[in-house]
Amino acid sequence: MQRAEKGIPVPVEKFDLDGNPYIGVFLNANDKVLLIPERLSDNAAESIEKALNVEVLYFYPGTRLLGSLLAMNNAGILFSEYIRDSVSDEFLREVEERGMRVGFLEDKLTALGNNILLNNKKALLHPGYGRRSIKFIEDTLDVETAVGTIAGIKVTGSVGVVTDKGLLVHPKLTSREEEALEEFFCLSPVKVTVNFGSPFVGAAVVANNRGALVGSKSTGIEMGKVEDGLNIL
Q: What span, in angstroms and rounded, lies between the C-alpha atoms of 226 and 220?
């Protein structure tokens, strides 16, 4: 893991978890909290706080895959119903104290972080979600929804990252998809790779409206495109 010089804010920071640069699989953030599945060293926590400027909450519901399995924005957190018994009452209270709703979605598409690309206003969903699930997602996360693909891929959260200020996408986004995304999110999609050429940007970037963590294998050029694409200043 590379760290910023102490005391200097860095809006885009390289990061890995136990040597794994695909941090978007394990971490989940909004403008209030960052959820992590394991305790961090003081230096690692400091790096996160410099980039995202949020409180770090430890949360382990029997899995480390918090980025892949949970969908979260400032309004709420959406879990799959199948992990309900692993979510403690104490954690639910902590979330609710921060003004966030909690929902448990009963659907065969359980990897919510992979299947939902969202910010605080909109969510692009895997086309496999049915009407009942879509309504539940809208109500829990207080978002307008659409279904679609990115580069022909249905797991939109794996191949995109969106905040209220910017949108990063798989480099093989089609022109038709680009037009649909720009109209829906009211943001211009920026095609990027991370971790030295990986197109799975959602698996390697954790972002909010203040900054971003990027997989530690990412190049300087890739980090610059992430910063520009998310309009992080």
A: 10
